[in-house]
Amino acid sequence: MSETMREISGIGPQGLSDELLTATQPLVLRGLAASWPMVDAALTSDRAGLDYLRRHDQGATVGAMLGPREAGGRFFYNADFNGFNFQPVHAKLSGVLDEIEGKLALDPAPTVYVGSTTVDTCLPGFRAANDLDLGGRDALASIWIGNRTRIAAHYDVPDNVAVVAAGRRRFTLFPPEQLSNLYVGPIDFTPAGQAISLVDFAAPDLVRYPKFAEAMRHAQVAELGPGDAIFIPSMWWHHIEALAPFNVLVNYWWRQSPDYMDTPTGALMAALLTMRELPPAQRQAWQEIFRHYVFEADAETAAHIPPHARGVLSPLTADGARALRGHLLKKLNR
C-alpha cells in the first residue's frame, strides 16, 4: 500500500530554505508557484496557458516525441526491445503548441511531448516572472510541455524541484533501496538517457514482476495541480503521469557536489568493465576496498599517511580531479 507524501503550504517562490533544499525525503510544496502568471493563465483555460507560452516564443526549435494513440501516453520500448514506441522529431515550438491545441478534445489522443528543454533557450524572458529563488544554487531550469503522458520510473543524480505550471500530474516516488523491486531495464539503451522501470504502472504484471508489489508498499504518491511543486531528492525513483489534455512542468536541477566531480554513473560503468565478472571471492574483496576508501571514508582513512604523500586519497580539489581524470583516461585508452 503506497503512502501519501508529506506536504507543506504557505511558502512562496522566495521562501525555499536550505533545510528544504537539502532534504533526503520527498516533499510536496502546495501553492509554491501560485503567484506565477503562467499558472494564472493555465487556470483560466488551456488555450490561455498555450497563448501565454506563445507570447514568449521567439521561434525556438525543440526536440519533441510523438506517440501513437494506442500507447496511452506511455513512452517505452517497442515490442522487440530494439527501439522505442515513439518518434523523436525536431520542430518549431509554435508548431508543437498548435499540435497540442488541436488535440485538446481528443481522449485518448496521440501523444505530443517536449521533454527537458532549457527554459531560457526555449522561452526567453519566461523566468522574469515565473521563477524560484534557490538560494544561489546554480540550477538548470528546464521545461516539459505536452498532453497526457506517462514517464516510466527512473532516477536522476541531481536534486530536483519540479513545478506544475499547467495541468495535473501524479508523482509516484520510491526510495533508492527499491531498485531491485522495480525491474529496471538496460542502463545503456534507454528512451531518454536514464534507465527505467519496465513495469507498466497502469497495469502492473505481478506474475512477470512479482516484487513490484513490495516496491509499491514503499511508494509515496502525490497529485499536483497548477502552482504546486514537489522536491525530489537525488537518486529517488519517480514515475510521472501528466493527467490533463495540456500540461506544463518547470523543474530545477542542481547537485550538492562541486562541478569538477564527475557523475557516479561513470564509476558504475567502470565497475561493470573491471569487477562484475571477477570470481566471487575477489568481488567480495573489492567490495571491502570500496567500503573502506569510498562509502565509509572519513578523516581517519588516510591519517596514517603523511599529507604530502596521500595522492588520490587527499581531499578532492579541482586540480586533483583533473589529474585523476587524466590518469583514468590513460588507463581506459590503453
TrEMBL record:
Q: Which domain of life is it from?
A: Bacteria
Task: Supply the SUPFAM superfamilies for this chain.
Answer: Clavaminate synthase-like (SSF51197)
Q: Which residues form the JmjC domain?
A: 76-269
What Pfam family is a match, any one? Cupin_8
Transmembrane residue ranges = none
Q: Which InterPro entries match?
A: Cupin_8 (IPR041667), JmjC_dom (IPR003347)
Which SMART domains did the record assign?
A: JmjC (SM00558)
For this entry, the protein name equals Cupin-like domain-containing protein
Which species is this UniProt entry from?
A: Duganella guangzhouensis
